[in-house]
Sequence to fold (125 residues):
Amino acid sequence: MILFDTNAILRYILQDDLLMANAVEIELESNFGNCVIPVEVITEMVYVLNKVYNVDRNTIALSIEGIANIHSDLIVNCNVVCYASKIYATTNLDFVDCLLVGYAKIKNYSIFTFDKDLKKKIASN
Fold:
């Protein structure tokens, strides 16, 4: 199994270093089905895209969906992450809170929180 780190995924999405972006693409293609992006990497990617590169929430959500479309098993807990990305695009919740909403909705997990906005979003989904 090959795990991708945040830097590799950012190069692939941003295409700011074509050699690195191409290396990621080659690795994905040559090891199709044997590559994984952990949820933690997606979370860090969202943070960096938003805070460092000032990418808007909707574009970030579309980037996550684009990665998910490469292969359904590429992102760990892909259905939760994709659900979270849709919430992220349309709310002010941080991505980790959006993931928690996704776990509540998709996996039927109970979420223990004192965060009123998070509670409200979980209840509305």
Notes: The CA atoms of residues 4 and 15 lie 16 Å apart. The mean pLDDT is 96.
